[in-house]
Amino acid sequence: MENWIGIGIWIVMGGVIGLLVRAAMRLPEEQDGHAVVIAVLGVFGALTGGMLGVGIFHFYEPTSLSIGGMASAAVFAGFIAWVYRWGVRGWL
Fold this sequence. Notes:
Low-confidence stretches: none
Strand content: under 5%
Shape: elongated
Structural class: mainly alpha
Number of helices: 3
Order of helices and strands: HHH
Helix content: over 70%
Number of domains: 1
Mean pLDDT: 85
Distance between the termini: 44 Å
Number of strands: 0
Largest sheet: none
């Protein structure tokens, strides 16, 4: 049960981080609908980063509520959202 709670925290954290990156990188000519896309990409980044962090830092006792899992989920969610915003800014 502890792992499912951690994964739920990753999902919420990824969506929030994605929206924070969107707010930090304001685009003047932005179209509607990017908030949902960037939130989903933040969730994807958090899930991927969290799994990588748990696998790398806590190989013998893998729990998703670990420091390595949470930190890497936050970093990877921010990175994926930033890469998307940077790419969209280049195309506009």
